[in-house]
Amino acid sequence: MSNEKDLHASGEETEVSVNGQDEALQEEADSVDDALFLSPDDSEGEVMDVNGGGGVSELQQDLVAENEALKKQVEELSTECEEQKNRVLRVAADLENFRRRSQREKEDLRKYGIDRVVMELLPAIDNLERALQHATSESGENSMTEGVRMVYRQLLSALEKHGVEGFDSKGTAFDPQRHEALQQVESTELATGTVVDEYQRGYFLHDRLLRPALVSVAKNVQSVNSVNESNGADASAPSGQHDDFDPSDDAQE
After folding, report:
1. What pLDDT score was predicted for residue 6?
2. Is-contact 162 142, C-beta < 8 A?
3. How far, CA to CA in Å, does 238 sit from each of 107, 170, 229?
């Protein structure tokens, strides 16, 4: 009997321990489930509703608002980036224009920077030309005249190396871009507008007019007289009447 009681008691203890283990496992599983459904931001352990409750809608609203704010920030940054790009392009264009303008001014200074010096030398060259013309007309060519002419040619050659060149105007058509007329001379041989005489030679500095030539211009009077004579003949002989017409002839008849 005692053995049967012991077996029965041991069986009850085994059943109690198994039941206790089952209860412990069930409690641990319930705690894990509770931990899965608890919000990590909720210190009081409130359970978040996953069935479409108010918590999810608020989270969605927050995400949408944050997304809109990020989109707006991206648009603002894009606009600012485009403005900075345009500003950089404008600065680069201004810098390129400044470089070209500086280069052009430097080239102009190199080509035309001697204009004042040349203008100071031209009167001396004019006087040399007049002296040579006077000496040649008075005594012809001699050693002194030839020496002065060599100096004159040397000056002209030095000026030509720097782009200074003179031009002849006598016998050419008057050009207001190159000539300055001092007087008008009547002529029966030259056409109107032809340069009769040159009082001062003109010069170019490269492609720029440095000094215009002082000239006199012809006015053809023969053609004017011919036109006047023809007009006068027409006026003195009216149509239908002759110079030898005598009104007394009709009376005698």
Report:
1. 53
2. no
3. 71, 45, 15
Whole-model pTM above 0.90?
Answer: no
Mean pLDDT of the chain: 77
Which residues are CB-contacts of 188 (< 8 A; sequence separation ≥ 6)? Answer: 220, 221, 222
pLDDT at residue 55 is higher than 50:
yes
Q: What SS3 state is found at 214?
A: strand
Largest CA distance in the chain: 208
- 34's tokens: 């509770």
**Length reported for the chain:** 253
CA distances from 159 to 33, 169, 206 (A): 107, 19, 11
**Predicted pLDDT at 137:** 79
Q: Edge-to-edge strands of the sheet including 202-205?
A: 164-167, 202-205, 208-211
Question: Strand, helix or coil at 87?
Answer: helix
CA distance 246 to 152: 76
State the Cα–Cα distance between residues 212 and 182, nearest whole angstrom: 12
**Pairing state between β 179-187 and 213-220:** parallel
pLDDT tens digits along 169-223: 999 999 999 999 999 999 888 999 999 999 999 999 999 999 999 999 999 988 6
Beta strands in the chain (DSSP E): 164-167, 179-187, 195-200, 202-205, 208-211, 213-220
| Cβ pair 196, 242 in contact under 8 A | no
- Per-residue pLDDT for 93 more than 90? yes
